[in-house]
Amino acid sequence: MGDTVGKVVETLITIVIAVSASAAVWLIANLIVAQGRNHWTRFATLRLGIGGLLFGIILSGNRIISGSGSIEVATERNGDTSWVTTGSWSERLIAWIWFPLIAMLAFAAVGALMSMRDSRSERTLIGAVGLAVVAGVGGALVREQFRPEVDAAALAIAVVVVAGLGAAIATLRRRDTISGALTGAAIGWVIGAWGAPELGAGSSVWSTIALAIPGAIIGVRAARPNVPDEAGRDRMDRRSRAFIFLGPALLFVTTNLVVPALRTLYLSLFDRNSEEYVGLDNYRTIFTNPKSWDTSTWRDMFTSQLMWVGLALLVLFVILGIRGKRRTGRVIELGSASSGPLLGAVVLIGFAVFTTVRGTIVNNLWWVLVVTLFSTSLGLAIAVLADGLKGERIAKSIIFMPMAVSLVGASVIWRFMYIARDSAKTQTGVFNSLWVALGRLSTGDGLPTLIIGAIVTIIFGLLLVNIARNLARGEPARAAAPAVFAILVGWFLLRYWRITGTGVGGHRIKDDGTIVAQPINFIQDPPFNNFWLMIVLVWIQTGFAMVILSAAIRAVPTELIEAAKVDGATDSQVFWRVTLPQIGTTIGVVVTAIIVLVMKVFDIVKVMTNGNFGTEVLANNMFREAFSFGDTGIGAALAMLIFISVVPIMFLNIRRMQRES
Amino acid sequence: MSDIAVHTRGSGPIERIYSTLRRVPTIVLWFIVIVWSLPSLSVFINSWRTRDAQRSRSWWTTKPDEFTLDNYESIFNSTTSGGLSNSLLNSMAISLPATIIPISIAAFAAYGFAWIDFKGRKGLFIAVVSLLAIPLQVALIPLLQLYVNGAHLTLPWLDKTITIIPDFNLVNTTTAVWLTHTGFAMPFAIFLLHNYISSLPRDVFEAARIDGADHFTIFWRLVLPLSVPVLAAFAIFQFLWTWNDYLIANTMAGTNPDAIPTTILIANLAGDFGMNEHLLPAAAFVQAFVPLVVFFSLQRYFVRGILAGSVKG
Known about the structure:
The complex is a heterodimer of chains A (661) and B (313).
Chain A (H helix, E strand, L loop, with lengths): L1 H37 L1 H22 L10 E6 L2 E6 L3 H27 L4 H21 L11 H21 L4 H19 L8 H20 L6 H38 L13 H8 L16 H24 L7 H21 L3 H27 L5 H9 L6 H12 L11 H14 L3 H26 L3 H21 L10 E3 L5 E3 L11 H27 L2 H9 L4 H12 L1 H16 L3 H6 L9 H11 L3 H29 L1
Antiparallel strand pairs in A: 1-2, 3-4
Helix pairs in contact in A: 1-2, 1-8, 2-3, 3-4, 4-7, 5-6, 6-7, 8-24, 9-24, 10-11, 11-12, 11-17, 12-18, 12-21, 13-18, 14-18, 16-17, 18-21, 19-20, 21-24, 23-24
Chain B lengths: L1 H5 L6 H9 L2 H23 L4 H6 L13 H8 L6 H32 L5 H10 L6 H13 L1 E4 L6 E5 L8 H24 L4 H9 L4 H12 L1 H17 L2 H7 L8 H10 L8 H18 L1 H11 L4
Antiparallel strand pairs in B: 1-2
Helix pairs in contact in B: 3-15, 6-9, 6-12, 9-12, 9-13, 12-16, 14-15
């Protein structure tokens, strides 16, 4: 218990420190800029202090100053010295921050002394000597292995070139040429003295000189009369504010998104240890690997029942479409009669393809098809069904609730739906319980078997009656949907009754004639285990689609619907001809949002199968390659692949958002 | 269904059956609702049942004497998997900073983009918003390397290496996780807040400017109070996003049992088949408890946040 309290306190302290430190930095920056308008000298002093802080951070962060940067033990390995960091985080923080803080105070002190003098020559003297001393002390503290052996020629060239460059830039920007030259000279000196020569060969005298001189130059530069006029200060204020307000966000965006994304692109062109350039080999490996794209069994799709039923539905859709065209003049007519077969055809043919052509990339496409189609159409159906119904809010809340649950949590939840226990034991998962119970029913001969059979037979009869009535009225198009249902139910019945079939559901007839339960291993039996994983995401995303679509349905002008009803349109005609076209854009929004989400699907696969049993998808493959197998090249290439597949859709989305706002 | 419902004239026995079928939409809806709640219900009920009961009998045939509090007790006390209370704290230590810090930083930036005039404002804004297109997988490998090694730049020609960001040894800490979240949240947060802040009435700002208020004062005194609804929507979205995140936490802190959030704990628990499987429902329920409370109490903001968040990369 004491442990927990300690942890709570530690957690809270960390949060408070992190938040308040960032807030303090930001507030101080605002305060400093606020001085610029009315107290220029104070502002100049503070600005010099910030310069000192940056100077200190660069030296300290690069571990150039002895005893600063980190607490580490130098270890020799293969002739290279590497540092192993030690110490607690507070010790490390202090080691890192002491030098920058002292540098900041010293610089600010020099700045304060300068601002007390009115005479320019005195200011120049104080600035030059003060900063030379401060920077020189820093130089004297430089670690042995960084002390430069200054090469006078290189130094002179660097100073002259960069000073000239600085002067030219300042002149072009209509600023003080001499100030520009001085800044350039200081930068040139640093480059010439520290960048050009071999480090570690020089003495502390050289390192002191190499920092003291640019310090002096900056001191002279700071003493130049550069108090701007009112307009200049205004411009300065605006610019600094823009920088302060945008700076933190841009910093995070750069370090966490832009640079890493570019680096991933770069890494994807290198081998597994990022050592050797391999060009597009990683991408080639991914695309030629049978694990991501296995077409060896593609012929099987034509012997698949799914394909043939799908094609039959497609034919039905075409027939209905042609009939519709004769009536309304449109080739493809959306409506309850024809879109059912179309939807069924797409799903079945898709399944036929995706269960015979296998692989990581194929799985991703299958995910896109199933989750997008099922979530959107189910979400739309629920939105329509619930519209204006009693208990609409409760129903919608329950459907939407899975959005609040984590994908990991949802996977765990669905594992309990999919549990398959040994055939001799009681099934504890909902699906297998029902499946095994159905098997027991259809192979049994008790009263329940009869009752269920009778109910289904009655439904079959009703469907037949419905078909007959529609045909008698001369509306064969209306008979199509019940006919499809009747075929399905009839097929079920044929297998259900023991006289005509071998029974349906989870059972197996042994050689000796005894019947045992036969549960489905939903998670481990390929290729349909993929589908059962997709259902988890459908369960979550349907609520999302429903909420957006039902808002869109509400927004359809009631006059339109009233007018259609006055003209004698039925409910279903109103939906297909009025509501659906009106919410077309919103459906597009939902579909694109879900596609982007599905292309990156990771958590469900990781938790339920970790990509085993033929369920691998791009994002999980990327995680495995990069973080489990340590193949940075392939991992980066897979990440780029996800990126490339999502970009077009995302850009459509962003364009739309910009139009809306 | 409506096909069937259309033909209801007449009063024969078949017609009577059809008129019952009129209620089919309602029945179908409530059937879907029941199906939708079954998964959660099964886990919720199982979380209160003994290990033996969970393994041998289905949850809808449960008997009163099978109920127990043991599962909840063991997940909070268990030392085998680091314990749930520890990971709940880690989840908090990730989600709170990962909500508060991005929201403030993004508010500054949104204000800057909306109301501070500077050169290249529009281009920069479009550039930042375009980053919404980057799926987070793309940044993970380099970010992990950054947290392990720091960032070093080798200067061309001079052949010297400069440390731009030192290694703070952040890997496997909650700090690494929320820092990552902060970066990833930025484009979306800026976009969302900018939409709102830029639509605030211009007169208010001009009046304040005339009164001599600087940008900081305007931001603090005017913009923040006026933006509470959008800040709340984003905060809820971001809190749930970070609370429910698995990928980033697993990448940045997955191997340190002391730093893992609840999602990883549960995934690990689900990974070791057998011994602890009976604790899974209780753990999953506790993990989902916080988001569910948010969901039921702040549903309006929640919906708004989720809808806006659908564009996140």
